[in-house]
Amino acid sequence: MTRHLPTPDSYDYEWVALSDARFAPDTGLIRLSWPDTTMLDVHPTWVAENTPVTGYDTVVNEGILDVREAPTPSDVAAVTIDDEGALAVTWSDGGSSKLHPGWLRHIAENKHLPDSFLPDRVKWTPADLAEPISVDGSDVLGDSGALEEWLSALVGYGLARLVDAPTDPDFLLDLMKHVGPIRGSNFGDLFSVRIHESPDSLAYTGLNLGQHTDLPTREIPPGFQFLHCIENTVEGGWSRMTDGLALIDELQTNHADHYEALTTLDWVWFNRQHNDDHRWVGPVIDHGGPHSPVTFRAFYPVRSFPAMDSRDVSRAYAALCCLNDVAHDERFQMRFAFRPGDIVGFDNRRVFHGRDGFDPGGGGRHLRGCYLDSDDILSRTRVLRRRTQ
Ligand code: OGA
Ligand code: ZN
Protein backbone atom coordinates (compact mmCIF):
# COMPACT_ATOMS: atom_id res chain seq x y z
CA MET A 1 0.00 0.00 0.00
CA THR A 2 1.46 3.36 -0.96
CA ARG A 3 -1.38 5.48 0.35
CA HIS A 4 0.28 8.58 -0.96
CA LEU A 5 -0.74 10.97 -3.70
CA PRO A 6 0.34 14.58 -4.15
CA THR A 7 -2.16 17.32 -3.35
CA PRO A 8 -2.10 20.89 -4.70
CA ASP A 9 -1.00 22.43 -1.41
CA SER A 10 1.49 21.97 1.46
CA TYR A 11 -0.69 20.01 3.87
CA ASP A 12 -0.54 16.34 4.91
CA TYR A 13 -3.94 14.71 4.68
CA GLU A 14 -5.02 11.62 6.51
CA TRP A 15 -5.88 8.91 4.00
CA VAL A 16 -9.68 8.46 4.18
CA ALA A 17 -10.55 5.81 1.58
CA LEU A 18 -13.64 6.33 -0.55
CA SER A 19 -16.34 3.67 -0.46
CA ASP A 20 -17.90 4.64 -3.79
CA ALA A 21 -17.45 6.95 -6.80
CA ARG A 22 -19.88 7.09 -9.69
CA PHE A 23 -20.50 9.34 -12.64
CA ALA A 24 -24.08 10.53 -13.24
CA PRO A 25 -24.46 11.48 -16.93
CA ASP A 26 -27.70 13.39 -16.19
CA THR A 27 -25.98 15.88 -13.85
CA GLY A 28 -22.52 15.57 -15.41
CA LEU A 29 -21.12 15.20 -11.86
CA ILE A 30 -19.09 12.52 -10.09
CA ARG A 31 -20.58 11.59 -6.72
CA LEU A 32 -18.04 10.53 -4.11
CA SER A 33 -19.04 8.66 -0.95
CA TRP A 34 -17.22 7.65 2.22
CA PRO A 35 -18.27 4.81 4.54
CA ASP A 36 -19.76 7.20 7.13
CA THR A 37 -22.20 8.54 4.43
CA THR A 38 -20.27 11.76 3.83
CA MET A 39 -20.70 12.74 0.16
CA LEU A 40 -19.20 15.21 -2.28
CA ASP A 41 -20.24 16.00 -5.88
CA VAL A 42 -17.36 17.06 -8.12
CA HIS A 43 -17.28 18.24 -11.70
CA PRO A 44 -15.06 16.28 -14.14
CA THR A 45 -13.35 19.47 -15.38
CA TRP A 46 -12.46 20.32 -11.79
CA VAL A 47 -11.09 16.78 -11.29
CA ALA A 48 -8.86 17.29 -14.35
CA GLU A 49 -7.70 20.68 -13.06
CA ASN A 50 -6.68 19.09 -9.76
CA THR A 51 -4.82 16.13 -11.22
CA PRO A 52 -1.09 16.13 -10.36
CA VAL A 53 1.20 17.01 -13.30
CA THR A 54 -1.45 17.18 -16.05
CA GLY A 55 -3.76 19.59 -14.20
CA TYR A 56 -1.44 21.49 -11.92
CA ASP A 57 2.27 22.01 -11.57
CA THR A 58 3.40 19.97 -8.57
CA VAL A 59 6.26 22.33 -7.73
CA VAL A 60 4.34 25.61 -7.57
CA ASN A 61 0.95 24.04 -6.78
CA GLU A 62 -0.86 26.13 -9.37
CA GLY A 63 -3.22 25.02 -12.13
CA ILE A 64 -1.84 24.90 -15.66
CA LEU A 65 -4.91 24.06 -17.77
CA ASP A 66 -6.67 26.47 -20.10
CA VAL A 67 -10.27 25.70 -19.21
CA ARG A 68 -11.18 25.59 -22.92
CA GLU A 69 -8.89 22.60 -23.38
CA ALA A 70 -9.76 20.77 -20.18
CA PRO A 71 -11.85 17.56 -20.22
CA THR A 72 -15.62 17.95 -19.89
CA PRO A 73 -18.28 15.51 -18.63
CA SER A 74 -18.55 13.99 -22.13
CA ASP A 75 -14.85 13.04 -21.93
CA VAL A 76 -15.39 10.74 -18.94
CA ALA A 77 -14.74 7.10 -19.96
CA ALA A 78 -14.80 5.44 -16.51
CA VAL A 79 -14.97 6.39 -12.84
CA THR A 80 -13.80 3.95 -10.14
CA ILE A 81 -12.01 3.84 -6.83
CA ASP A 82 -8.62 2.14 -6.83
CA ASP A 83 -7.50 -0.65 -4.46
CA GLU A 84 -6.62 1.86 -1.77
CA GLY A 85 -9.76 3.98 -2.03
CA ALA A 86 -8.46 6.85 -4.20
CA LEU A 87 -10.63 8.42 -6.92
CA ALA A 88 -9.62 7.10 -10.36
CA VAL A 89 -11.01 8.63 -13.57
CA THR A 90 -10.18 7.46 -17.08
CA TRP A 91 -10.68 9.96 -19.89
CA SER A 92 -11.79 9.13 -23.43
CA ASP A 93 -8.40 10.23 -24.85
CA GLY A 94 -6.72 7.49 -22.77
CA GLY A 95 -5.46 9.82 -20.04
CA SER A 96 -6.29 9.29 -16.36
CA SER A 97 -6.60 11.12 -13.07
CA LYS A 98 -6.02 9.88 -9.54
CA LEU A 99 -6.93 12.07 -6.55
CA HIS A 100 -6.11 11.73 -2.84
CA PRO A 101 -9.34 10.72 -1.02
CA GLY A 102 -8.32 12.50 2.20
CA TRP A 103 -7.81 15.72 0.28
CA LEU A 104 -11.24 15.31 -1.30
CA ARG A 105 -12.64 14.60 2.14
CA HIS A 106 -11.36 17.91 3.57
CA ILE A 107 -13.42 19.67 0.89
CA ALA A 108 -16.51 17.65 1.82
CA GLU A 109 -15.93 18.89 5.38
CA ASN A 110 -15.56 22.54 4.23
CA LYS A 111 -12.00 22.72 5.53
CA HIS A 112 -10.82 24.39 2.33
CA LEU A 113 -12.58 27.70 3.04
CA PRO A 114 -10.80 30.87 4.25
CA ASP A 115 -11.74 30.29 7.90
CA SER A 116 -9.91 26.94 7.90
CA PHE A 117 -7.18 26.64 10.52
CA LEU A 118 -8.17 29.98 12.01
CA PRO A 119 -9.57 30.31 15.53
CA ASP A 120 -13.25 31.14 15.94
CA ARG A 121 -13.96 34.84 16.33
CA VAL A 122 -14.88 35.60 19.93
CA LYS A 123 -16.92 38.70 20.66
CA TRP A 124 -15.98 40.36 23.94
CA THR A 125 -16.86 43.07 26.41
CA PRO A 126 -14.77 44.05 29.47
CA ALA A 127 -17.05 41.82 31.56
CA ASP A 128 -15.50 38.74 29.92
CA LEU A 129 -12.14 40.23 28.87
CA ALA A 130 -10.82 42.80 31.33
CA GLU A 131 -7.39 43.12 29.64
CA PRO A 132 -5.97 41.85 26.34
CA ILE A 133 -4.98 38.19 26.37
CA SER A 134 -1.25 38.30 27.18
CA VAL A 135 1.50 36.05 25.90
CA ASP A 136 5.12 35.99 27.12
CA GLY A 137 7.09 37.86 24.46
CA SER A 138 10.58 37.42 25.94
CA ASP A 139 11.44 34.63 23.46
CA VAL A 140 8.92 35.30 20.72
CA LEU A 141 11.59 35.08 18.00
CA GLY A 142 12.66 31.65 19.29
CA ASP A 143 10.54 28.61 18.59
CA SER A 144 8.56 28.93 21.79
CA GLY A 145 5.08 28.69 20.30
CA ALA A 146 4.50 32.26 21.54
CA LEU A 147 3.98 33.63 18.04
CA GLU A 148 1.28 31.09 17.25
CA GLU A 149 -0.42 31.68 20.60
CA TRP A 150 -0.32 35.45 20.19
CA LEU A 151 -1.55 35.47 16.57
CA SER A 152 -4.30 32.98 17.41
CA ALA A 153 -5.59 35.22 20.20
CA LEU A 154 -5.21 38.24 17.93
CA VAL A 155 -7.34 36.72 15.19
CA GLY A 156 -9.90 35.29 17.61
CA TYR A 157 -10.40 38.31 19.87
CA GLY A 158 -9.21 40.99 17.47
CA LEU A 159 -6.82 42.03 20.26
CA ALA A 160 -3.82 40.41 21.96
CA ARG A 161 -0.69 41.53 23.78
CA LEU A 162 2.87 40.31 23.99
CA VAL A 163 4.45 41.22 27.31
CA ASP A 164 8.12 41.46 28.31
CA ALA A 165 9.30 41.73 24.71
CA PRO A 166 12.62 43.56 24.10
CA THR A 167 12.35 47.36 24.09
CA ASP A 168 14.71 47.97 21.17
CA PRO A 169 12.88 50.62 19.06
CA ASP A 170 13.32 48.49 15.91
CA PHE A 171 12.24 45.20 17.50
CA LEU A 172 8.84 45.44 15.79
CA LEU A 173 10.63 45.23 12.43
CA ASP A 174 12.44 42.03 13.49
CA LEU A 175 9.21 40.54 14.82
CA MET A 176 7.24 41.31 11.67
CA LYS A 177 9.88 39.56 9.56
CA HIS A 178 8.42 36.40 11.16
CA VAL A 179 4.84 37.44 10.41
CA GLY A 180 4.54 39.19 7.05
CA PRO A 181 5.23 42.34 5.07
CA ILE A 182 4.51 45.62 6.81
CA ARG A 183 1.91 47.78 5.15
CA GLY A 184 3.42 51.22 4.95
CA SER A 185 1.49 54.47 4.89
CA ASN A 186 2.20 58.17 4.67
CA PHE A 187 3.30 57.83 8.32
CA GLY A 188 6.10 55.44 7.27
CA ASP A 189 6.59 51.69 7.64
CA LEU A 190 7.32 51.95 11.33
CA PHE A 191 5.99 55.09 12.98
CA SER A 192 6.79 56.63 16.34
CA VAL A 193 3.79 57.61 18.44
CA ARG A 194 5.24 60.31 20.67
CA ILE A 195 5.16 64.07 20.93
CA HIS A 196 6.24 65.53 17.57
CA GLU A 197 7.20 69.17 17.22
CA SER A 198 5.06 69.62 14.13
CA PRO A 199 2.54 66.78 14.36
CA ASP A 200 0.72 65.54 11.24
CA SER A 201 -1.66 63.45 13.34
CA LEU A 202 -3.49 63.97 16.63
CA ALA A 203 -1.78 60.75 17.78
CA TYR A 204 1.49 62.72 17.94
CA THR A 205 0.16 65.10 20.61
CA GLY A 206 -0.82 64.53 24.24
CA LEU A 207 -4.51 64.94 23.45
CA ASN A 208 -7.19 62.44 24.31
CA LEU A 209 -7.93 60.25 21.26
CA GLY A 210 -11.58 59.20 21.10
CA GLN A 211 -12.38 55.60 20.14
CA HIS A 212 -11.45 55.20 16.48
CA THR A 213 -10.04 53.00 13.73
CA ASP A 214 -7.03 54.14 11.69
CA LEU A 215 -6.89 55.18 8.03
CA PRO A 216 -10.54 55.09 6.97
CA THR A 217 -9.26 57.24 4.11
CA ARG A 218 -8.16 54.05 2.32
CA GLU A 219 -10.30 51.80 0.13
CA ILE A 220 -9.28 48.94 2.44
CA PRO A 221 -7.99 50.29 5.75
CA PRO A 222 -5.04 48.39 7.25
CA GLY A 223 -6.19 45.11 8.76
CA PHE A 224 -4.06 45.02 11.89
CA GLN A 225 -2.17 47.59 13.90
CA PHE A 226 0.67 46.93 16.33
CA LEU A 227 1.84 49.31 19.05
CA HIS A 228 5.09 48.51 20.84
CA CYS A 229 5.78 50.40 24.06
CA ILE A 230 9.39 51.55 24.30
CA GLU A 231 8.91 54.01 27.15
CA ASN A 232 6.02 55.19 29.28
CA THR A 233 6.55 57.39 32.32
CA VAL A 234 3.67 59.84 31.82
CA GLU A 235 0.58 60.17 33.97
CA GLY A 236 -2.43 59.08 31.94
CA GLY A 237 -2.18 58.06 28.30
CA TRP A 238 -3.99 54.79 29.06
CA SER A 239 -5.08 52.71 26.13
CA ARG A 240 -8.76 51.98 25.46
CA MET A 241 -10.24 49.23 23.26
CA THR A 242 -13.83 48.45 22.22
CA ASP A 243 -14.84 45.35 20.29
CA GLY A 244 -16.79 46.45 17.21
CA LEU A 245 -18.58 43.09 17.07
CA ALA A 246 -20.09 43.69 20.53
CA LEU A 247 -20.90 47.22 19.45
CA ILE A 248 -22.80 45.98 16.40
CA ASP A 249 -24.88 43.71 18.66
CA GLU A 250 -25.75 46.59 20.94
CA LEU A 251 -26.66 48.90 18.05
CA GLN A 252 -28.77 46.29 16.30
CA THR A 253 -30.61 45.40 19.49
CA ASN A 254 -31.15 48.80 21.09
CA HIS A 255 -30.52 51.45 18.42
CA ALA A 256 -31.76 49.95 15.16
CA ASP A 257 -32.40 53.33 13.46
CA HIS A 258 -28.90 54.55 14.23
CA TYR A 259 -27.45 51.24 13.10
CA GLU A 260 -29.24 51.59 9.78
CA ALA A 261 -27.85 55.12 9.34
CA LEU A 262 -24.31 54.02 10.24
CA THR A 263 -24.34 51.19 7.71
CA THR A 264 -25.94 53.06 4.80
CA LEU A 265 -25.02 56.76 4.90
CA ASP A 266 -21.67 57.60 3.31
CA TRP A 267 -19.01 60.09 4.32
CA VAL A 268 -15.91 61.28 2.48
CA TRP A 269 -12.82 60.34 4.53
CA PHE A 270 -9.97 62.63 3.59
CA ASN A 271 -6.40 62.93 4.82
CA ARG A 272 -5.73 66.66 4.34
CA GLN A 273 -1.95 66.94 4.49
CA HIS A 274 0.30 69.14 2.36
CA ASN A 275 1.86 66.24 0.50
CA ASP A 276 -0.79 63.55 0.88
CA ASP A 277 -4.32 63.38 -0.45
CA HIS A 278 -5.90 60.05 0.49
CA ARG A 279 -9.68 59.89 0.11
CA TRP A 280 -12.35 57.26 0.24
CA VAL A 281 -16.09 57.34 0.49
CA GLY A 282 -18.07 54.87 2.57
CA PRO A 283 -20.29 54.37 5.59
CA VAL A 284 -19.05 54.23 9.20
CA ILE A 285 -19.93 50.54 9.45
CA ASP A 286 -19.03 49.01 6.13
CA HIS A 287 -20.24 45.44 5.63
CA GLY A 288 -18.65 45.26 2.17
CA GLY A 289 -19.33 42.23 -0.01
CA PRO A 290 -20.80 38.91 1.09
CA HIS A 291 -17.39 37.48 2.01
CA SER A 292 -15.87 40.64 3.50
CA PRO A 293 -15.30 41.14 7.20
CA VAL A 294 -16.88 44.25 8.64
CA THR A 295 -14.81 47.45 8.37
CA PHE A 296 -15.41 50.30 10.78
CA ARG A 297 -14.50 53.72 9.38
CA ALA A 298 -14.31 55.75 12.50
CA PHE A 299 -11.59 58.37 12.68
CA TYR A 300 -13.38 61.66 13.25
CA PRO A 301 -10.29 63.81 12.53
CA VAL A 302 -10.49 62.73 8.87
CA ARG A 303 -14.28 62.48 8.49
CA SER A 304 -14.57 65.37 6.07
CA PHE A 305 -17.80 65.66 4.10
CA PRO A 306 -21.21 64.03 4.21
CA ALA A 307 -21.79 62.15 0.94
CA MET A 308 -25.51 61.68 1.35
CA ASP A 309 -28.73 63.49 0.70
CA SER A 310 -28.53 66.68 2.79
CA ARG A 311 -31.82 65.73 4.44
CA ASP A 312 -30.03 62.68 5.93
CA VAL A 313 -27.20 64.62 7.57
CA SER A 314 -29.01 65.26 10.87
CA ARG A 315 -29.76 61.60 11.42
CA ALA A 316 -26.21 60.70 10.35
CA TYR A 317 -24.87 62.97 13.12
CA ALA A 318 -27.34 61.57 15.64
CA ALA A 319 -26.15 58.07 14.74
CA LEU A 320 -22.50 59.10 15.22
CA CYS A 321 -23.35 60.42 18.69
CA CYS A 322 -24.96 57.11 19.54
CA LEU A 323 -21.95 55.18 18.20
CA ASN A 324 -19.60 57.28 20.34
CA ASP A 325 -21.77 56.75 23.41
CA VAL A 326 -21.58 52.98 22.98
CA ALA A 327 -17.89 52.92 21.97
CA HIS A 328 -16.93 54.84 25.15
CA ASP A 329 -19.42 53.07 27.44
CA GLU A 330 -17.65 51.25 30.31
CA ARG A 331 -19.74 48.19 29.49
CA PHE A 332 -17.95 47.93 26.15
CA GLN A 333 -14.66 49.79 26.53
CA MET A 334 -11.59 48.15 28.07
CA ARG A 335 -8.80 50.29 29.62
CA PHE A 336 -5.22 49.36 30.40
CA ALA A 337 -1.80 51.01 30.70
CA PHE A 338 1.12 50.37 28.37
CA ARG A 339 4.26 48.98 29.98
CA PRO A 340 7.64 48.99 28.25
CA GLY A 341 7.98 45.70 26.35
CA ASP A 342 4.25 45.43 25.64
CA ILE A 343 3.31 44.85 22.01
CA VAL A 344 -0.42 45.29 21.58
CA GLY A 345 -1.88 44.07 18.31
CA PHE A 346 -5.45 44.70 17.25
CA ASP A 347 -7.75 44.24 14.29
CA ASN A 348 -8.00 47.81 13.02
CA ARG A 349 -11.13 47.12 10.99
CA ARG A 350 -12.97 45.49 13.89
CA VAL A 351 -11.69 46.89 17.22
CA PHE A 352 -11.85 50.57 18.14
CA HIS A 353 -8.84 51.97 19.93
CA GLY A 354 -8.31 55.21 21.79
CA ARG A 355 -6.09 56.83 24.37
CA ASP A 356 -6.53 59.01 27.43
CA GLY A 357 -4.86 62.41 27.23
CA PHE A 358 -1.58 62.98 29.06
CA ASP A 359 0.69 65.85 30.03
CA PRO A 360 3.42 66.02 27.36
CA GLY A 361 5.78 67.70 29.85
CA GLY A 362 5.33 65.10 32.58
CA GLY A 363 7.59 62.26 31.39
CA GLY A 364 8.17 60.30 28.18
CA ARG A 365 5.75 58.18 26.19
CA HIS A 366 7.03 56.42 23.10
CA LEU A 367 5.25 53.73 21.10
CA ARG A 368 6.50 52.27 17.84
CA GLY A 369 3.73 51.26 15.49
CA CYS A 370 3.07 49.54 12.19
CA TYR A 371 0.26 48.04 10.14
CA LEU A 372 -0.13 44.71 8.36
CA ASP A 373 -2.88 43.69 6.00
CA SER A 374 -5.32 41.08 7.27
CA ASP A 375 -4.35 38.69 4.48
CA ASP A 376 -0.81 38.44 5.81
CA ILE A 377 -1.84 37.96 9.43
CA LEU A 378 -4.35 35.28 8.49
CA SER A 379 -1.88 33.49 6.20
CA ARG A 380 0.83 33.35 8.90
CA THR A 381 -1.72 32.23 11.50
CA ARG A 382 -2.92 29.37 9.28
CA VAL A 383 0.63 28.24 8.54
CA LEU A 384 1.61 28.25 12.24
CA ARG A 385 -1.57 26.48 13.31
CA ARG A 386 -1.16 23.89 10.57
CA ARG A 387 1.51 22.28 12.80
CA THR A 388 -0.80 21.84 15.75
CA GLN A 389 -4.33 21.55 14.35
C1 OGA B 1 -2.49 55.80 16.81
C2 OGA B 1 -3.13 55.79 18.10
C3 OGA B 1 -2.85 55.33 20.42
C4 OGA B 1 -1.93 55.64 21.56
O1 OGA B 1 -1.28 56.03 16.74
O2 OGA B 1 -3.20 55.57 15.81
O3 OGA B 1 -4.32 55.73 18.15
O4 OGA B 1 -2.07 54.95 22.58
N1 OGA B 1 -2.35 55.76 19.19
O5 OGA B 1 -1.14 56.56 21.48
ZN1 ZN C 1 -5.13 55.27 16.05
General description of the model:
This protein has about 400 residues and is an alpha+beta fold. It folds into 2 domains: about 110 residues, NE0471 N-terminal domain-like, CATH 3.30.2020.30; about 250 residues, Double-stranded beta-helix, CATH 3.60.130. About 20% of the residues lie in helices and about 30% in strands. The chain has 8 helices and 23 strands. The strands form 7 sheets. A 6-stranded mixed beta sheet has the order 9-10-21-13-23-11. It has a 4-stranded antiparallel beta sheet with strand order 12-22-14-20. A 3-stranded antiparallel beta sheet has the order 1-2-3. Strand 4 and strand 5 form a beta hairpin. Helix 6 crosses helix 7. The radius of gyration is 26 Å and the shape is elongated. The two termini are about 25 Å apart. The mean pLDDT is about 95. It binds N-oxalylglycine and zinc ion. Zinc ion binds next to loops.
Task: Estimate the helix proportion, in percent.
Answer: 10-25%
Q: How many beta strands in the DSSP annotation?
A: 23
Here the CATH topology of the largest domain equals Double-stranded beta-helix
The first-level CATH class of the largest domain is given as Alpha Beta
Main structural class = alpha+beta
Strand content: 25-35%
Please compute the radius of gyration using only Cα atoms: 26 Å
Strand order of the largest sheet: 9-10-21-13-23-11
- Quickly count the helices: 8
Summarize the main sheet.
6 strands, mixed
The tally of domains stands at 2
Which whole number gives the mean pLDDT?
96
Classified in CATH, the superfamily of the largest domain is: Clavaminate synthase-like
In this entry the ligands are: N-oxalylglycine, zinc ion
Corresponding CATH architecture of the largest domain: 4-Layer Sandwich
Task: Give the termini distance in whole angstroms.
Answer: 26 Å
